[in-house]
Amino acid sequence: PPELHILNNCSPRQLEGLCSFLQLSVCPEPLLVCFCGWLLALSPSLSYTSAAILAEQLFLRRVLSLTQPPSRHLMAALAAFCSKYSQPFCHVLVAAVLQEPGKGAEQTKLVCELVEECLEPHCVHLVLSQVLEMPLSEKLLPVVQAVLGRQELLPPELLDLLVLTLCQQAPAFAASLDYAKLVTAILTVYQHQVS
């Protein structure tokens, strides 16, 4: 709809107010899919700041409150949004999920699914960078596994940081099957770069 062009003309504060007025954070999920489809067609594209605000308003509350797998409507909306605005999405939503220590398995599974199926390679690298900025935990190991599962070659500096992190934290994961799988995957995919 032509009215959506207002999104390109709002200041960040106005956009937050508009999202609040329209109650986008709680709109029904089928409408969310429709709205994200409209965002894809928007020309010119949203600025980074506007896309980040919309990622927060549209998805953050929904994702952090998941207690069961996301609906197909929510996954469709996330996939649509990620296809065009994956960098602001990662900075806002993925970072929040990774930093929430109390959040459960559904959020981690969702991030893994987005890494495996929706994100562009440079954003997959961004997710790994975000993971490596925090202390490694059992919760984060599947996310790293999902990154490696993409079979994308990591930049050398990111691979070095990953290997260093895994080496430094090895004693804490002495009994972890996920950690063992991760090390095996790295030695398989990057056997020529890892000594």
Automatic annotation (TrEMBL):
Domain of life: Eukaryota
Domain Fanconi Anaemia group E protein C-terminal span(s) in chain numbering: 1-194
GO CC terms in record: Fanconi anaemia nuclear complex
Gene Ontology biological process terms in this record: interstrand cross-link repair
InterPro entries per record: FANCE, Fanconi_anaemia_gr_E_prot_C
Official protein name in the record: FANCE protein
Natural source organism: Sakesphorus luctuosus
